[in-house]
Design a protein that fits this description.
Radius of gyration: 16 Å
Distance between the termini: 48 Å
Order of helices and strands: EEEEH
Oligomer: single chain
């Protein structure tokens, strides 16, 4: 998405993008093109220990649990 205004993360860059998750207007430096999210939302989704498509740290090597 192309937008104009000031970056809502750094307040110094010109906003060229809108975050697809939170709607924040951000500059090129604070936009993650891979996800379409601002860098803050992208960082939240890539925290270690959480399951995401890019983060496999949550796997424990067990395919099936039996109770």
């Amino acid at each position: 998405m192309s937008v104009s205004g000031g970056c809502e993360v750094c307040a110094t860059g010109d906003a060229s993008f809108g975050c697809d998750r939170c709607g924040r207007l951000v500059c090129d430096e604070h936009y993650d093109r891979e996800t379409g999210y601002c860098t803050e939302c992208a960082a939240e989704l890539k925290r270690p220990g959480e399951a995401t498509s890019d983060n496999e740290e949550w796997r424990d090597g067990v395919d099936t649990y039996r109770m």
